[in-house]
Amino acid sequence: MAPADRGFVSRIAPALLMITLPPFFTEWLLGGTRLSAIIGFPPIIVMEIIVWGGGALMLRALARKLGLGWGSLILFGLIIAMAEEFVIQQTSFAPLVIKLKGVEWARAGGINYVYALWALAYEAVWAVLMPTLVAEMVFPDRKTETWLSPIGLIIVGLLFPIGSAMAWFGWTRIARVQTFHLPIYNPTPGELLGALTVIAALFLWAIKFPPRLAASAPPPSPLLLGIGGAIWSALWFVLVVLAFGLMPQLPAPVVFVAFLVLILLVLACMIRWGADAGWTELHSFGLVFGTLGGAMLATFGGFIGNATPADMAFKIVTNLIALALMLLLGRSMTTKRGESVPGR
Fold first, then answer.
1. Partners of 111 in the beta sheet?
2. Whole-prediction pTM value?
3. Cβ–Cβ < 8 Å for 96, 119
C-alpha cells in the first residue's frame, strides 16, 4: 500500500509500536518499574515512553534515513544509554542505591564501572536494538521507512528534553532522597562534559565511520540463536547482581574485563551474522524470543522475597502476555514464509 493510501492510524502505527516497546522491554517486563511504582507515581509511564521510546524512535529513524547498518544502530543505542546513565538519571555516576552486602564495590574515578558496563549494554540492546527488530518484524514491508514525519519529529524532539528533565528530577531529587534515603549527588561539570563528549563521539563514529567487519558470516539457526540469546541475557543479569555487591570478595576489574570481552564477542558475531544474506526474519525472531525469555525468567530472582503480591502478579501477567504475543508473531511469520514458497 502506498503511503498516500494509508489512513492516519495506519501511517503512525509503526511509530506508536516503536515508541511503546522500549519501556515495555526495559522496565515493565523485567521489573525495573513495578506496579507499585506505577500506582504510586503514574507519570512515570509517560516519562519512560518519552525518554526510552522517543529516543529510540528518533535514533532508529536517523539510522534508516542515512541507510546505516546494525553496527551504527548499536552505537545509537549506546548513545541513549550514555545519556540515561551519565546525564539524565546519572546512576553510573552517583553511588549505587542498592548495596546487597552494605559495601561499595566496583567504583573508581567517580564511576560505578561494573554497573555502567551492565547498564550500557542492557539499555542499548533492550531499548533500541530489540524494539527495532520486533517493530520491523511486525511491519516488514515498511522497515526501510523512518516512521517519523517532519511534524512527528518536531513533536518527539520537543518532548524528549521535557521527559528527560522530569526523569532527572524524579530520580535524583525525589526517589534517591525520599525512597532510598540517600543524599543528592551532583556530578561535577567536568564529569558531565566528559559524558557529553563521549555521546558526541559515538554520534560521529556511527554516522561517519559505520562499524563494519571484514566479512559477514552465515548465522546459526534461529533455534540456536534463541538459546544463545537466553543464555547471554541471563548471564547479563548475573552481572548487575554482582554490580550491586553480591560477592564483594570477587576482584571487580577481573569481572569487568570478563564481561566486557563477552559483550564484545556477542556484538561482533551479531554484526557479522546480521550482514549475511542468509539472515532472515526468523533469525531475528529467534534472537529476540530467546533474549527476552531469558531476561524475563532471570529477573524473577529479584522478586523472590522482595515484592508485594500485586507486583509479582503484575510481572507474571505481563510476562505471559509478552510470551503469547511473541508466539503469535512467530506463528504469523512462519505462516507467511510458508505461503511465499513456490508451489504451496
1. 108
2. 0.93
3. no
